[in-house]
């Protein structure tokens, strides 16, 4: 399986990873460029991960909307519950549950290749939010974590990738600090027929 993805919904990644764990044959995933977030979660279910020497994996820490669950949970380290809105308290509860769910799932798929203690340790490291969500885990870093990674990438994988050129996304080529997206109403022009505050 060739993985080239920035990630996506946890549910979809978990379904694919579970199918790979249950598959009877040996599974090799090839990461020619990057397999972040959900892509890494899928890669963890394989018997072997083959990466280009410059390819990257990424953390699998859950995100709630556009915010990391680990950071949401930390709010209560700085504020008392009475100083936090009800909506934010609900979000904190959801974030805490998401973290438990993801670490439990990741540990479960890692049991296919690792002893219980190592699977739990690796699942915690990858999902606890110690890095930003776009942190690049290079080949050496993946090996230091204990992942079984090879760099014997077949040339035909790159040839196949060349058949599917990707259009530019309109985003800057280097994004140092991701900005939060504006809320639904912020920055939008009034819809036709509606009145603006100044009319």
Total of DSSP H or I helical runs spanning 4+ residues: 8
Give the helix level as a range of percent: 40-55%
Order of helices and strands: HEEHEEEEHHHHHEH
Shape: globular
The helix/strand class is: mainly alpha
Radius of gyration: 20 Å
Strand content: 5-15%
Instruction: Please give the largest β-sheet.
Output: 3 strands, parallel
- Give the second-level CATH assignment, the architecture: Alpha-Beta Complex
CATH level 1 name: Alpha Beta
| CATH overall fold name | 2-enoyl-CoA Hydratase, Chain A, domain 1
| Spatial strand order of the main sheet | 1-3-7
Strand segment tally: 7
Total discrete domains: 1
Question: Care to describe what's here?
Answer:
The protein is mainly alpha-helical and about 200 residues long. It has one domain (about 10-160): Alpha-Beta Complex (2-enoyl-CoA Hydratase, Chain A, domain 1), CATH 3.90.226. Helices cover about 40% and strands about 10% of the residues. The chain is built from 8 helices and 7 strands. The strands form 3 sheets. The protein has a 3-stranded parallel beta sheet with strand order 1-3-7. Strand 5 and strand 6 form a beta hairpin. Helix 5 packs antiparallel against helix 6 (about 115-125). Mean pLDDT is about 85; it is low at about 170-180 and about 185-199.
Give the arrangement of secondary structure elements:
Layout (H helix, E strand, L loop, with lengths): L9 H13 L5 E4 L2 E2 L2 H6 L4 E4 L4 E2 L5 E2 L2 E2 H5 L1 H4 L7 H25 L5 H12 L11 H7 L3 E2 L4 H8 L37
Parallel strand pairs: 1-3, 2-4, 3-7
Antiparallel strand pairs: 5-6
Helix pairs in contact: 5-6
């Amino acid at each position: 399986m060739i993985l080239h993805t920035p990630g996506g919904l946890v549910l979809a990644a978990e379904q694919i990873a579970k199918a790979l764990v249950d598959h009877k044959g040996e599974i090799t995933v090839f990461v020619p460029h990057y397999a972040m977030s959900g892509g890494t979660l899928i890669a963890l279910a394989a018997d072997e991960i083959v990466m280009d020497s410059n390819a990257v994996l990424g953390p699998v820490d859950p995100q709630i909307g556009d915010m990391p669950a680990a950071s949401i949970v930390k709010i209560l380290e700085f504020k008392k519950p009475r100083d936090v809105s009800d909506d934010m308290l609900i979000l904190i509860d959801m974030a805490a549950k998401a973290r438990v769910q993801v670490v439990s799932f990741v540990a479960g798929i890692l049991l296919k290749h690792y002893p219980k203690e190592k699977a739990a340790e690796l699942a915690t490291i990858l999902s606890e939010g110690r890095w930003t969500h776009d942190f690049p885990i290079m080949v050496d870093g993946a090996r230091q974590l204990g992942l079984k990674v090879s760099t014997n990438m077949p040339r035909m994988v790159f040839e196949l990738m060349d058949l599917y050129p990707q259009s530019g996304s309109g985003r800057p080529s280097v994004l140092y600090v991701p900005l939060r997206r504006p809320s639904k109403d912020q920055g939008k022009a009034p819809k036709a027929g509606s009145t603006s505050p100044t009319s």
